[in-house]
Design a protein that fits this description.
heterodimer; A: mainly beta; 5-stranded antiparallel sheet; globular; B: 113 residues; 3-stranded antiparallel sheet; 52% strand
Chain lengths: 110, 113
């Protein structure tokens, strides 16, 4: 039931864009996105509920396609501070319990 | 600032010891969770709790138990520590409603020797 994230790792130059995908084999109620910097706790970025909405947070936005059972995180004009590991967490039904993907390591170079 | 506090940042225990990992949150959150984080495996849910004295198994509960006697405190217990339980343990809490996601603690890196 663990969602699959792709790519596993990505390296960018400052100012470049990236997309991280999160796919589930089960129908989803909601998706969380988190960023974790090395040695720190994961930090919540945004939640998406079923309904296909798109949300934004600074230059980071995400979409949720419940038909395809997937969510995508969009990072535009990346900054050095975007480096870290990104996790999606998926909720199947209103359980408040999230199952996390294995993460995508993102590194932004100057 | 809201906080989830884990009692130890680093812990070294011997095989067979009973180990207690403590987590306290000051946000009056109903939900609390214990995850372990391993390279290549991401975060895996061990146990969670929706309310005081309530608990539910996550995906990998074997070898663990939990206790929630007070709303703010959620303890993870390793009944008899084994080397394959060497990991980073993360506690998290959230509101029962459509809240702003999980707040994670800084983690406890447990090494079992």
């Amino acid at each position: 039931q663990q969602p699959v994230q792709s790519p596993q790792a990505v390296i960018l130059r400052e100012g470049e864009d990236a997309v991280i995908n999160c796919s589930s084999s089960k129908a989803l109620y909601s998706v969380h996105w988190y960023r974790q910097k090395h040695g720190e706790a994961p930090v919540f970025l945004m939640i998406l509920l079923k309904g296909g909405e798109q949300k934004g947070h600074e230059k980071i936005s995400a979409s949720f396609n419940e038909k395809k059972q997937q969510s995508s995180l969009y990072l535009t004009a990346s900054q050095l501070s975007y480096s870290g590991t990104y996790f999606c967490g998926t909720e199947m039904g209103r359980t408040y319990k999230y199952i996390f993907g294995t993460g995508t390591r993102l590194k932004v170079l100057a | 600032d809201v906080k989830v506090t884990q009692s130890s940042r680093y812990l070294v225990k011997r095989t067979g010891e009973k180990v207690f990992l403590e987590c306290v949150q000051d946000m009056d959150h109903e939900n609390m969770f214990w995850y372990r984080q391993d390279p290549g495996l991401g975060l895996r849910l061990i146990y969670f709790s929706y309310d005081v004295k309530m608990k539910e198994k996550g995906d990998i509960p074997e070898g663990y138990s939990v206790s929630r006697e007070k709303k703010e405190r959620f303890s993870l217990i390793l009944e008899s520590a084994s080397t394959n339980q060497t990991s980073m343990y993360l506690c998290a809490s959230s509101l029962l409603g459509q809240g702003p996601g999980y707040t994670f603690g800084s983690g406890t890196r447990l090494t079992v020797v």
